[in-house]
Amino acid sequence: MVLTDWHAYERSRNRFANICSVEWGLDPLIEIASASETDIVVMAMSGTIGLLPTIAALAAGKRVAIATKEILVGFGEQVMKIARRGGGELLPVDSELCALHQCLAGRPGREVRRVILTASGGPFRRTGPPPSAKIKQVLRHPTWSMGDKITVDSATMMNKGLETIETSRLFGLGPNQVDAVIHPASIVHSMLEFVDGSTMAQLSHPNMRLPIQYCLTYPERVPAPMRKLDLTDIGKLEFQPIPAGRFPCYDLARRVARQGGAMPCVMNAANQVAVEGFLAGQIVFGDIPTIIDRTLRAYRLHIGTEPMRRSVKSLLRAEAWATSYALRLAEVPVTRKVN
To answer: In sequence order, which residues have a C-beta less than 8 Å from that of residue 301 and are 6 or more positions away?
Structure first.
């Protein structure tokens, strides 16, 4: 057992000493991820703390089933290069990207015209996120049962913005090739349109057991503990556009996807701070997009005319800068509308 939380390590090392070894820190995680005995690494650590173990596993030629979208959002170009050099394989546990992987089925990216991600719309799909929404309202997701951070991202629609960047990085597509629509039922998880006009979609009940099993058993298909999909029972599938301006976080992510460079890394760091601040009761819901936007603008001024380097080390520096800046904003939040 390896823990990255020191307090959890302190509580656990004596309690579980007779059952297993208990270690702390990233070095043991990196060692396990790249060990010869390791076949598959499932990366589901929150945020980007799992970046270095992921890189180590891919450099050692391992399969990484990645559920942590922030790693590909902030460091995707570098991670994919390392995977290609080391012979590693990245499979997405994220339901939407897993759906795209199934639809693409190994076909080259040049045959893809665009992909269409689906979003449940969260609890505020009709109105957009209310600036004064309470934590209980925000965490009341209508379709999925998830952790608090990703549930907040779903409510702001930042989750779909992150997936736009993640999709572009994982499948080698341009940001203009990635669209998203609101699909409240969460039955169609993604669609892929080929250059010949044919569109393929992956459908299933919203249950993370399927994408997890897919990544662990790929390329085989084995029976899964899933409820059978009965389209006659569902009746109809509804899709709606995401109105411009309704979800400021989604709009920010789309803009950042086009900018590239270190900006996705900066945005992700600022969002992480803002969401944690909201869940801690430090800021109000409407402060989340404001903090992200102000951090992005400040970073632009911070780098000035310097080249936007894309090495892992330079991106880690950008992430640290953005985290520090966003933390200062969260201490004295100023709610205002993001233009």
So the answer is: none
- Residue 185 phi/psi, 5-degree rounding, is -75, -20
Bridge-based pairing state of the strands 188-194 and 178-182: unpaired
Judge whether 128 and 244 are in contact, CB under 8 Å. no
Count helices and strands (H / E) in the chain: 14, 9
- Going edge to edge, which strands form the sheet with 63-66? 40-43, 63-66, 89-92
Cβ(195)–Cβ(112) below 8 Å: yes
What is the CATH classification number for the domain harbouring 320? 1.10.1740.10
Question: Each residue of 172-202: pLDDT tens digit?
Answer: 999 999 999 999 999 999 999 999 999 999 9
User: What tokens appear for 175 in the block?
Assistant: 């940001």
Residues 168 and 27 in one domain: no
Tell the burial category of 143 from Cβ atoms under 10 Å away from its Cβ (0-12, 13-18, 19+).
Answer: middle
Q: What is the pLDDT of residues 93-104, one digit of tens each?
A: 999 999 999 999
Strand positions, DSSP E, 75-212: 89-92, 112-119, 178-182, 188-194, 199-203
